[in-house]
Design goal:
Blueprint lengths: L1 H26 L5 H27 L6 H27 L8 H21 L2
Helix pairs in contact: 1-2, 1-3, 2-3, 3-4
Subcellular location: Membrane
Keywords: Membrane, Transmembrane, Transmembrane helix
Protein name: DUF423 domain-containing protein
Length: 123
């Protein structure tokens, strides 16, 4: 599973940087200030949790187990739901995508909780 988390971390990092640059250079004149801020928030959280996935990938070999894999899965799900819904909201202007965002936030919180529990249980 460590390989999967590392691949997802690389994908999240690559696309997070690409989307952030796209927003700063390609979308600045096309989106409202509010929608640009939403897009940048999505990119910011994607990059942070891409690094969290990288940490899970590194730790998965030393602290194997269900909690570590659940942390990785929840971070990946959080990126998809939280950042993905914000990207869609910013690009489309359709505010209903915002309904999905809190579920991604809960996935992020669950990932951090699982990571903490894995550390707590480590002997």
């Amino acid at each position: 599973m460590a390989r999967l988390w590392l691949l997802l971390a690389a994908l999240a990092g690559f696309t997070g940087v690409a989307f952030g640059a796209f927003a700063a250079h390609g979308l600045k004149s096309r989106l409202s200030v509010d929608h640009l801020a939403v897009f940048q928030t999505a990119s910011h959280y994607q990059l942070i949790h891409g690094l969290a996935l990288f940490g899970v990938a590194l730790l998965a070999r030393q602290v194997p187990g269900r909690l570590m894999n659940l942390a990785g899965a929840l971070f990946a799900l959080g990126i998809l739901l939280f950042s993905g819904s914000l990207y869609l909201l910013a690009l489309s202007g359709y505010s209903r995508f915002g309904i999905i965002t809190p579920f991604g936030g809960l996935a992020f919180l669950g990932g951090w909780l699982c990571l903490g529990l894995a550390a707590w249980r480590r002997t």
